[in-house]
Amino acid sequence: MLETSNISALSATEIQAYKFILDNISLIPNMGISKLAKRAFCSNACIIRLLKKLGYASYNDFKYSIKQSLYTNTTQEIYNTHHAKDKIKAIFDSLDNSKILKICEFIKKSNAIYIYGRNMSSVPAKYMHEVLMSLDYPSILLEWKDVLLPLSNNSTENDLIILFTEHMHKAYFPVINNFSKNKSKIVWISNSRLNSSIANNISIYIHANEIDTDVTQHSSKLVSLLIAQLILDQIS
């Protein structure tokens, strides 16, 4: 982004903003200039001056460049690490885009958004939560299974629960039944196939079909992360 030798060209405030950008680079594509300036404790004008010194014509030009860079680096890492280019392509070719658009509609219309993920599944859950918050869609991150049942008991038709899980364990079924009974919207993204006994109570189900890591044979959650990014791209 900027050669170290050119740091001297920046003011103290611009250096502060630049450091914030470096520390939060993955959030930049989904952040407006006013939001970035507020988070970096500077003005919109400061951001514009900084970007001109970085060689960008506009803030949108900067966001596009960062987004392309992040996408290229992420996908290249997936292909190189897992040798799974064909499988990744097959997974995304099979995704129903209407489901992605429907999830976006749920997010925009819901009064309360809950995002659940534990262990490795917390990675896509945390990412979606952080980006939605940066886009001014307040959401609550849940990482403990024990909180789901009491939450589902008091859910309403204006609530949305998004679950990222490795398995479609039967322990989740009472939770799903409660949310469904209260007419809440339920999105389940899992590495397991959809269980027919619970299918009618889920608003949208997406089979992530994760890729196992070469060493541990545990699913990497890279596909879930990319699904989350597809949703966030449509939201922003």
UniProtKB/TrEMBL annotation:
InterPro entries with a match to the protein in the record: Homeodomain-like_sf (IPR009057), HTH_RpiR (IPR000281), RpiR-like (IPR047640), RpiR-like_SIS (IPR035472), SIS_dom_sf (IPR046348), WH-like_DNA-bd_sf (IPR036388)
GO molecular function: carbohydrate derivative binding; DNA binding; DNA-binding transcription factor activity
HTH rpiR-type domain sequence ranges: 1-73
Biological process per Gene Ontology, one example term: carbohydrate derivative metabolic process
Protein's UniProt name: Transcriptional regulator, RpiR family
Native source organism of the sequence: Solobacterium moorei F0204
Source species taxonomy: Bacteria, Bacillati, Bacillota, Erysipelotrichia, Erysipelotrichales
